[in-house]
Design a protein that fits this description.
By secondary structure, the chain is α+β, with helices and mostly antiparallel strands. Helices cover about 55% and strands about 15% of the residues. The protein folds into three domains: about 170 residues, no CATH class; about 160 residues, 2-Layer Sandwich (Beta-Lactamase), CATH 3.30.450.40; about 130 residues, Histidine kinase-like ATPase, C-terminal domain (Heat Shock Protein 90, 2-Layer Sandwich). It has 13 helices and 14 strands.
Length: about 550
């Protein structure tokens, strides 16, 4: 299917005017041909001019249809039309001319092209020209030919037609402005819920033409009703128990959009429009009494809104005018308010979830890093305290090693407190993965006094930032778990980088895990046999972990997609 090219918004109006000009010109030519006595003076010239105008109209219509309106052509054709219409009027006895409708046509063209300003400008030119023409004809024609009464009536016709078109133009401009404001509805970023809510409600109030606005809603499972009010004095956002304000409106008005022209009292007369479009009249207090302090002023318009997470109603008071489109406009604005509040609610939920996940991540990093190291330091202190004279390593050397390990952990805790990423604790001056793992190996040997070997089989591919930060922590936890529970004499770590995958293997010659045999990722998740923190970290990165445990040692394999 061929897609039609996009055309300017001026194409259709200019095409309509061009076709109407052709129709009007042909109708006038037919009228002259049908009753040639009507143009009492210079019949031949009048007829020839109409034929020429028909040809001109056809040429302009064809050119407009094929080449578009252009930039200056509407002004040129508009001026030509007014001049030609004035000539036709002059040649056909002016006030008595049957072609007075031409001037009305020029008013409509000005309104279609340039709105109410174009109507005013065209009306001024046409009326002045008509007056000049009438004055000239009154001097050359006799009283029987120049009908003064008809001349005055037609001037009034021009004024009335221009006034109506100006009103319609201003009305259309106001509607277009409302649509543009709806199209530029404010976004809802930021953490300040009161400020964002106030901006949204204020914007909605200005579209409706209200000086005060109040939104009342319930969000999610929160056991509270939120009330946001805006006026020239500022914005307020408060929480209330549901019993204080629910139901917001009487059952007869539930789900309806309603408008009240006077003060909100127990004797108010409300025009309500339901979802089906049918209108009903309600007499009485249209809102919960607890809302009256927020609804001062003359006039009230209200509409409900409901989204997946938010449900409530908006109230506009101190209305500038209760126009016919107020009901529809209030409904549209209420839906936009509901969508904005829904997005704000989702943003707050995501922010809370992110904060919770960040706390979990910090707890996991502290567990895998600092706490595991402190465990090794504690065991070393226990060994020093219970050692007997004659051991190969003096107590003093052990205490100095413990002091160095504590200094390292102290520096790591300072990095945490300073707000740096926990994994920065494993960084050395050389930020490569190999350098971080080497620094990790030295620390573990210092704290646990067990030889640890770390081999990088080949250079791993470029790793994402989260994976690069997590690898030392995962290696640290896997090694310390083996040292703490399996009591091996040696631990070996192998890091192997392949296309699209990073493989980490931690093997030891200790007593193994509590279970025996191989366990894949699914089996480990279904049991509590694997180190829970390590398994969760691997899963959060989209990786897989497998463990093989025997009486002579264990093997932990981690695979991460990179």
């Amino acid at each position: 299917m061929q897609i039609q090219p996009y055309r300017s918004s001026r194409d259709q109006p200019e095409r309509t005017i061009a076709l109407a000009r052709v129709g009007l010109a042909m109708s006038s030519l037919f009228a002259v041909w049908l009753d040639p006595a009507e143009p009492a003076r210079i019949v031949e010239i009048t007829y020839a001019l109409h034929v020429a105008y028909v040809v001109y109209s056809l040429i302009i219509a064809g050119f407009t249809w094929t080449h578009g309106p252009g930039n200056r052509r509407p002004f040129v054709t508009h001026a030509i039309d007014i001049v030609v219409f004035s000539v036709f009027q002059y040649l056909t006895l002016g006030p008595s001319s049957p072609f007075f409708v031409y001037f009305i046509f020029s008013l409509f063209c000005g309104a279609i092209r340039w709105g109410w300003r174009g109507t005013l400008s065209t009306a001024a030119i046409v009326v002045v020209g008509y007056l000049v023409m009438g004055t000239s004809l009154s001097r050359t024609l006799g009283p029987s030919e120049f009908e003064l009464t008809r001349f005055i009536i037609r001037v009034l016709y021009l004024g009335v037609a221009a006034g109506l078109l100006v009103y319609l133009g201003r009305y259309e401009a106001r509607l277009r402005g409302d649509i543009e404001r709806l199209a530029h509805w404010p976004a809802t970023p930021g953490a300040d819920a009161q400020r964002v809510t106030g901006q949204v409600i204020e914007y909605a109030a200005r579209i409706v033409g209200a000086l005060r606005a109040t939104a009342v809603w319930e969000a999610g499972e929160e056991p509270a009703v939120l009330v946001a009010s805006w006026s020239s004095k500022g914005t307020s956002l408060t929480k209330h128990p549901p019993a204080d304000l629910v139901p917001l409106v009487p059952p007869e008005l539930e789900g309806s959009t309603f408008v009240c022209g006077g003060m909100v009292t127990e004797a108010s007369i409300v025009l309500a429009t339901g979802a089906s479009g049918a209108s009903t009249e309600f007499r009485g207090l249209p809102v919960h009494p607890g809302l009256l302090p927020h609804l001062s002023g003359v006039g009230l318009a209200s509409a409900p809104f409901r989204t997946e997470r938010v449900a409530g109603r908006v109230f506009f008071t101190e209305l500038a005018a209760t126009t016919s489109e107020l009901v529809s406009l209030t409904e549209v604005v209420a839906r936009e308010i509901g969508s904005s509040l829904d997005r704000l609610h989702v943003t707050q939920q995501l922010r809370d979830i992110a904060a919770s996940e960040e706390r979990i991540r910090l707890a996991r990093d502290l567990h895998d890093g600092v706490l595991q190291s402190l465990t090794g330091i504690r065991l070393e202190l226990q060994a020093a305290a219970t050692s007997k004279h004659g051991v190969s390593i003096p107590v003093r050397d052990r205490l100095l090693a413990v002091e160095r390990a504590l200094a390292i952990e102290q520096r790591e805790l300072r990095l945490f407190i300073a707000g740096l990423k926990p994994s920065d604790a494993f960084r050395s001056d050389d930020a490569t993965l190999a350098a971080r793992l080497e620094a990790l190996r030295s620390r573990i040997e210092l704290e646990w006094k067990v030889p640890v070997t770390i081999r990088i089989a080949c250079d791993p591919p470029a790793l994402p930032e989260d994976v690069q930060q997590a690898v030392p922590l995962m290696v640290h936890e896997a090694v310390v778990n083996a040292l703490k529970h399996a009591h091996p004499s040696r631990v070996t770590v192998t890091v192997d980088g392949e296309a699209g995958e990073l493989r980490i293997v931690v093997a030891d010659d200790g007593h193994g895990f509590a279970f025996r045999g191989p366990y894949d990722h699914v089996a480990l998740r279904q049991t509590n046999a694997a180190p829970r923190s390590l398994l969760e970290r691997v899963s959060s990165l989209g990786g897989r972990m497998a463990i093989e445990s025997t009486d002579t040692g264990s093997r932990v394999e981690i695979r991460l997609s990179v």
